[in-house]
């Protein structure tokens, strides 16, 4: 109770700005609003609140906590406890930390009320020692275990049975019981070998313990040294900002192109969803093969598209012709607007979706607890700390100058020093995978943050617009020309303007993508363009206008040859029909085996009908070597390419609730209310209406309030608001009437109004 009283007095002496900072750092202390500093002090020492506040403490701050705890435990029974002061605490640590770093660390502990002062003496919240991420004494005793390189070398020399034993202890717990720990145990057993190599510590004849460093190396965690109170110094790699932005822009081009291909593939054939909600391995492989994208990258891009609401699970329209009524993964209508948006706008949507994604896509394909592969888009990828860890990794890179890159091991070690309670989140595989995903999205170039990513991470109201502008400046300007080669390849020396890009994609197939995209023109691609309604003359004009190189004759001949054969057969709906101005050609079709497949029947020398749908009629004839074209009722060629399925976004879909932290203005108001309650609790009453705790009549309340208003005396009123919350407040009555008390709040200087029948007690103050 003494500690609570001294903490309450110390909190009462803090400034309003310091109390606002405390409530910002520990928002759980303000809910509900404490009635006094004593209540606030009790909450500040509760175990759950202390452990929550200690999550972001660094190694130096935990060393201070350990030193204060060790001093408290060192006293003997019957002797008075002598608290440490700033000077004595710094003297105990000065050989390992500078005064500036020590002062900053102690200030952070004081700001969180994990440590407080009475005079020069420092006091520690009792539960703070339970938050230590290592055994007590680790920061004060010199380490006697093997170093990381020594552990790595010793593990390499260990046998299979010895390694299996170490792996078991690393995953289940550091201590194990065995009969081989006794000094007279057979020397050829695994445990004596490990004890001799110092990969195990002997506790007694039947107990061994895995050293902390060995366990960290086995689990892939960053190796931490609690005795080192200065942060590790990473190795920095310098790059020019222009080079970093250029590399990032190149990745963005690949990202946008691959995402467009995935949307097209899902639109043509939506992927069935698993019953658990994810995407099966077989469907993931199909999409990867169809788009030519690696499986791991396909999984990441699907997660991005789903997070950006460009892909959704549901029943698409048109419904796929499959023997199932389950849900499918397919594009949403928002995908069409996204495809038409400028590249920088499209990138910002994907990058922001990844930064706010509470999932870890790099875990796709890993084994779960049941030894089954984790599916893409499944609930198993949702990790509560994913967003926080991702921002911590990229935020660390953002602390260094533009163009500076750090290695994954250095990032893990530095973050583990800064947040030792969360060090397992920064395993080497997790940090490496996060950096790889960031590079895939174009947030990193050469391992350093690009300028657009820095703007996006800034968190300012204009950060999205700034990031979009930075990426637009980094991306190459769209070009309005191509280079046609004699081998029927078309080279785009950069991203094409939208209209030209759409035309080239229609008449040619992508052969290789990159900073310069290579297309190839063939029979099928030319026929595709003609099917879409383009004429041979328009195709000749397209290449003649936009090619910086002479159009080769081979391309001219190809277009003319395909156009001459294209459309000689005209198909329509009957179910479907087939007509040709050349009776011999139609007779050739009717004599082919495909006529039986389609159930073709001639109704005139130049017309035949089929029972098959029009799309099947065209596909079968083309597969048989013919070149039919679809036509409408006027005889004009129509574009019959599939438009792709779409899933309507459900308007009532529930978004995850993420409470926003209180603003500084709200916290200042809370502190004002707290001060008022503290003043009311400490006020001395000279006369009160309710001395025995029972409610008084309205007449007595009115009389005392009117007296206080006449003589200008403050009163302490007990008030119950409309929500039933009781509070004490010191006010200066101004007017009493019409069932209401108008009084000035001396803390804020504002006039407040109180309903008389809600006033439970009144006391005149001296």
TrEMBL record:
GO MF annotation list: helicase activity
Region (Disordered): 170-189
Signal peptide boundaries: none
Keyword Ubl conjugation applies: no
UniProt domain Helicase XPB/Ssl2 N-terminal: residue ranges: 482-604
Keywords linked to the UniProt accession: ATP-binding, Helicase, Hydrolase, Nucleotide-binding
Keyword Nucleotide-binding on entry: yes
Biased composition regions of type Basic and acidic residues, renumbered to the chain: 177-189
Organism superkingdom: Bacteria
Coiled coil residues, start to end: none
Record's protein name: Helicase-associated domain-containing protein
Organism: Nocardia rhizosphaerae
